[in-house]
Design goal:
Number of helices: 10
Structural class: alpha/beta
Number of strands: 5
CATH class of the largest domain: Alpha Beta
Helix content: 55-70%
Mean pLDDT: 96
Order of helices and strands: HHEHHHEHHEHEHEH
Distance between the termini: 25 Å
Length: 218
């Protein structure tokens, strides 16, 4: 693992100070972040999936990345000028209100597509189908499964690996199958589902803060 930049170390220290039980997986959290950083630096995107509470987490993560989280992410002056040239009134409003995004797609959010696929094909391939359609080599798949054994998540993971998409497994317990196939496995040190999910939130919030600092910080 490369030497941490000061701003990155700051975020990790804050995370561990608030959740000291995560110290044992600190390096995994950092390595997962570095995969995300590399992905975005190279023009890739993040694909996210989970079930139940983890499905809500998938949409939560996308919400933090696709707009301002803590820092203001104003569009560039050059793009603001293009908006204003296109429509002086609407363009000015858009230039003030649009926020730069780190592209993230929750595979849990497309009800019409998901229900059509589940109705027509093997239901446990629902995330795999979307990942196959949306994903490209160089992207990252963030797979959320508290057990590490969710079959629809594992199916999507197989597709991701076959496509050259890196996989971050955010899981718990012993990591299950997901930990074995992931490029980086971040295993929350708990065994109860709700306790695992309670640790997942500060972990992915830390990733979002670090990414925002990297790409939009001064």
């Amino acid at each position: 693992m490369k030497t941490l930049d000061t701003w990155l170390e700051k975020h990790i220290k804050l995370l561990i100070s608030r959740y000291p039980q995560l110290d044992c997986i600190k390096n995994d959290i950092i390595n997962a972040y570095l995969l995300l950083e590399e992905c975005y630096e190279n023009g890739g995107k993040l694909l996210i999936a989970g079930n139940g509470g983890s499905a809500a987490d998938a949409e939560h993560i996308a919400g933090e990345l696709m707009k301002s989280f803590k820092l203001r992410r104003k569009v560039t002056p050059e793009f603001a000028a293009k908006l204003q040239k296109t429509d002086p009134v609407r363009g000015n409003i858009l230039a003030e209100n649009l926020e730069c995004a780190l592209t993230a797609i929750p595979l849990t959010a497309h009800e019409a597509l998901s229900s059509a696929y589940i109705n027509d094909r093997e239901p446990l391939g629902v995330f795999a189908q979307q990942l196959f359609g949306f994903g490209r080599k160089g992207d990252v798949f963030l797979a959320l499964s508290t057990s590490g054994n969710s079959e629809n998540i594992m199916n999507a993971t197989v597709v991701a690996k076959a496509m050259g998409i890196k996989v971050i497994g955010l899981t718990g317990k012993d990591g299950g199958e997901l930990a074995k196939i992931s490029d980086v496995a971040v295993i929350a040190p708990e065994s109860e589902t709700y306790m695992i999910q309670e640790l997942h939130l500060p972990i992915y919030h830390c990733w979002c803060l670090m990414l925002e600092d990297k790409f939009f910080g001064k």
